[in-house]
Write a structure and sequence with these properties.
It is built from 13 helices and 15 strands. The chain has about 375 residues and is of the alpha/beta class. It has a domain of about 35 residues. It starts with 6 loop residues before the first strand and ends with a helix. Bound molecules: nicotinamide-adenine-dinucleotide (NAD).
Length: about 375
Amino acid sequence: MEISGLFFHPRYKKIMTKILITGGAGFIGSNLIDHFLKEGHKVVCLDNLATGFEHNIQHHYNNPDFTFIKGDIRDLETCKQAVEGCDYVLHEAALGSVPRSIEDPATTNAVNIGGFLNMLIAARDEGVKRFVYAASSSTYGDSKKLPKVEDEIGKPLSPYAITKYVDELYADVFSKTYGMQCIGLRYFNVFGKRQTPDGAYAAVIPLWVKELINHRQPKINGDGSYSRDFTYIENVIQANEKALFTTDEQIAQGQYEYYNIELDFHKYYRDGASATEETVKTIHESSLSKSQLQSKQSRSFAEVFNVAYGGNTNLIQLFEALRDNLAHFDKDIQNIEPEFGPNRPGDIPHSQASIKKAEMILDYAPEYDARTGFERVAEWYFESLK
Ligand SMILES: NC(=O)c1ccc[n+]([C@@H]2O[C@H](COP(=O)([O-])OP(=O)(O)OC[C@H]3O[C@@H](n4cnc5c(N)ncnc54)[C@H](O)[C@@H]3O)[C@@H](O)[C@H]2O)c1
């Protein structure tokens, strides 16, 4: 791999790199592009504009550190060209949405699994330092356990969920077989600026904001009791930054602490045992010593992390928070009530993440709770619609 891709940024005094961000014209990808360019990195964006928009990235077109390649991840050659000279990959490109995958499982499969595999192959051949990809909380499927802990998943409930789980399996096999470093970030209901309210598969927050701004009644699927761990985009940016740049040594140390202590504690608690001195002693005795663990570790690994705030907000609370925030800009919005409809197939009742693993291994520390995020998103929609 070209070492000239590395350079020092005078302001941050840290190694700056060239990062390929696939799906960079989309909601999450374009926010990542803004961040990493601002931090002084070089960024290549690969996107076929299937669900993304040029207007999300065109403010960077005159920036010499930015390159946009309009292309499809289903084409291996395109992936190889895009990753040339890059040190890292942030793979965000995919067809999102559970309902879309139920309507058209074949295309979702081709993009989310076929395209993912192409990107892994291209990243492997280029010898990138780390391959960080967008995984999904949908991988927890029908598991009812709360909070969601990374190693306890259920059966997938949609074609979309299958694709995201298969991606994790591929990343794991590529790390073992080809010595890659792969990190999957299981995003939980991300929201923030540039999330589009348009189209048949829009996410709930932009959709409701659009309805409220237009004085229409947002539709709640079900009785409003379903809850989610709504995650503000700034927390997602932080998780990606840490997934890219947390050093191998910090990761090894975090893995030691997490797998040998925290996860065992979690299992004891879940099985109903109390953390007596005896339990602690058993855990420590059955654990590998730190040096044993480090010697087992090569530079390659595949990890997945929940990326969320670790809270839960039900749909009624979400509706009220959005309505209250939007009413600051237009007081008539305060009188709008939601309309209730049937539950949607494939939706799970509750989702809340444990973020302990990301905290311990990546030093992830989300700064924005859902309420702060709702305030900011309401303000952004109003300003951008002005
Ligand atoms: N938004 C969330 O709450 C959420 C939750 C879990 C996981 N994710 C994952 O995060 C990633 C980004 O999601 P998002 O919300 O920004 O969605 P998005 O639709 O806004 O962005 C996806 C981008 O990928 C591009 N893309 C789609 N097919 C492509 C192809 N064949 N080749 C090249 N580019 C292609 C789209 O044009 C779009 O710009 C996705 O992998 C998604 O599955 C998102």
